[in-house]
Amino acid sequence: MNIERIFLPTRPQPDTIVAIFLLREYGTERFPGVDTAHIEIKHSLNEGDTFDSLLEKGTLALDVGGGLFDHHGKNKTATELVADALGIRKNPELTQLIGYAVRDDTQGKGTISKDPLDRAFGLSGIIASLNKMYTDDPHAIVSFILPLLKAHHFVACEHTVGLPNDIERKEKEGKYTESVVKQAGKDIKISFVMSDKPSMPGYLRSQAGRLADVVVQRSEDTNHYAILTKQHKNVNLSKAMALIRLREAELKGIELDYGQIEAVRSLEQIPYWYYDPATNSLLNGGPHNRTVEESHIPWEELQKIVIAGIKLG
Question: What is the layout of strands, in order, in the sheet containing 214-218?
Fold first, then answer.
């Protein structure tokens, strides 16, 4: 058995597209060839055809003709039927993806916002537009959307499996620590981590992560730093920036104008540290930019400086 075609009963919908994504990502062992199968519309099966008989001929019927993956008359969506059959329904990285497909199919709320821009450019809106543009090419529509689902899946896997495992390992290796300090009467939780992953700060600040208010990230093999904050906490980084600049100047043997050490953006004498008020962050290169000069401050010392600077703020 090698799957060459996938039949859909009508134009691709979020539910059937997500179901196809799950089949391609998790179902190739059970359904060889499904990852390259051509998508076609078949409103109803030919007389005598069944899910099983079509499967033997290299066609997988999805949401049409009864059978394993047809949700009609069942209290489940096609996505849920596929997830259950593949034994992946409870995979943590699929919670949001399956939830989106179910909500769109059962409630018509792929996008909850009533804002016209949100609705037009939300995933369900984009799928609807593609259906109007490619009325006779369901395969093209699915092909446009699958990379978007792949990107979400990659991030979801990192946040639910990869990054939690990374942090657990880094704690044991001494590459991850936490501190809680007071600033203006508020507790500020700081996570210090050595990692090259751009998604690490977002994870550490998230509900699923460590709920950090500030993340100080050092590159694995270089002395590049990024100090990122949780926006709504309004952490004052100006004193931390001042202390960092003073220490960098001391290590380089130059003098700074004390009236400028808390200046936003960068100083001519220390151009490799950038203070960004828009994102409330301090940047010295990092995972996205290794061409910037490295900091001269050792990792252990930088941690102490950040703690002291946030306390002063």
Answer: 176-183, 186-194, 214-218, 225-229, 281-284, 274-276
Rounded Cα gap, residues 253 and 129, in angstroms: 61
pLDDT in tens, 162-186: 999 999 999 999 999 999 999 999 9
78 close to 71: Cβ distance less than 8 angstroms = yes
Residues 203, 215 contacting (CB under 8 angstroms): no
pLDDT confidence tier of residue 278, bands split at 50, 70 and 90: confident
Three-class SS state of 39: strand
Cβ proximity of 294 and 284 under 8 Å: yes
- Angle 81-87-91 from CA coordinates, rounded to 5°: 100
Q: How far is residue 275 from each of residues 60, 265, 271, 292, 305, measured CA to CA in Å?
A: 55, 4, 10, 14, 16
- CB of 114 within 8 A of CB of 94? no
Whole-model pTM: value is 0.80
Strand pairing category for 274-276 and 281-284: antiparallel
**216, β-bridge pairs:** 192, 227
Alpha-carbon span 223 to 201, nearest angstrom: 17
Residue 306 carries which side chain, given as an amino acid letter?
Answer: V
Question: Rounded mean pLDDT of 44-48?
Answer: 93
Give residue limits of the domains in the chain: 5-163, 174-312
For residues 166 and 250, give the distance between their C-alpha atoms in angstroms, rounded to a whole number: 35
State the pLDDT at residue 259: 74
116: which 2 tokens?
Answer: 């016209």
Beta strands 274-276 and 5-8 are unpaired
